[in-house]
Amino acid sequence: MENLQQIADLIGQCTDCNLHRSRLNVVPGEGVSNAEIMFIGEGPGQNEDRQGRPFVGAAGNLLDEMLESIGLNRGSVYIANMVKCRPPGNRDPLPDEILSCSKYLDRQIEVIDPLVIVTLGRFSLGKFFPGEGISKARGSLRYYEGRPIYPMLHPAAALYRRELKGTIYQDFKALPDILNNLRRSRMIEPQTDHPQINIEEPPTQMTLF
């Protein structure tokens, strides 16, 4: 089986859609290869394009903050996007661009084999549940071909609508219980391939806004 670096090398050489013409850097993904949680966003923005890393702008700062609220960090999860190159002007990725990148994302999922995939926003939700609205789907664990999928709003949504920050935090707070239940259902022990993540409950007096 391929490893994540081999997949990243293929992404770096990819010219299967027009996004490669305007990119500065590809953004394959970031994190550990045996992560229990895999986050999938939409696509790189300007900061991500410059640095070659996912979620490093304002939305990334909020994602880091939310990970910390449940005792996690980037070193214990894997973060990827539906497309690996920045759409010009931060526009939405086009269907053919998503299709071109899907083979790489599918291979990353296969290699990591996470306990749960957390979709961030409507585009990554649509990969598994086409046509469903993120507002209704968010916050409920689903299954796609036997794989647990947990839809959430994209952190960027809270940058434009401040009242959504509390909703996103609420969904994040459910992740510890979801992970524990999935561990029990798959009878995973700490010494197996997936490292056991010790997740702390967020502070009871945490300010959401």
How would you describe the overall organization of this protein?
It is built from 9 helices and 6 strands, in the order αββααβαβααββααα. It is of the alpha/beta class. The chain has one domain (4-185): Uracil-DNA glycosylase-like domain (Uracil-DNA Glycosylase, subunit E, 3-Layer(aba) Sandwich), CATH 3.40.470. Strands 1-3-2-4-6-5 form a 6-stranded mixed sheet, sandwiched between helices. α1 (4-12) packs antiparallel against α4.
**Which percent range fits the helix content?**
25-40%
| Approximate shape | globular
List the uncertain runs.
188-192, 198-209
Number of alpha- plus pi-helical segments: 9
Residues in β-strands, percent: 5-15%
Give the CA-CA distance, first to last residue.
44 Å
Secondary-structure element series:
HEEHHEHEHHEEHHH
Number of strands: 6
Write out the strand line-up for the largest beta sheet, numbering strands in chain order: 1-3-2-4-6-5
CATH topology: Uracil-DNA Glycosylase, subunit E
Number of domains: 1
**Biggest beta-sheet profile:** 6 strands, mixed
What are the key terms here?
alpha/beta; Uracil-DNA Glycosylase, subunit E; 9 helices; 6 strands; 40% helix; globular
SSE order and pairing:
Elements lengths: L3 H9 L17 E2 L5 E5 L4 H6 L6 H12 L8 E4 L13 H18 L3 E5 L1 H7 L5 H4 L4 E3 L2 E6 L2 H6 L4 H9 L1 H12 L23
Helix pairs in contact: 1-4
Describe the structure in brief.
By secondary structure, this protein is of the alpha/beta class. It contains 9 helices and 6 strands.
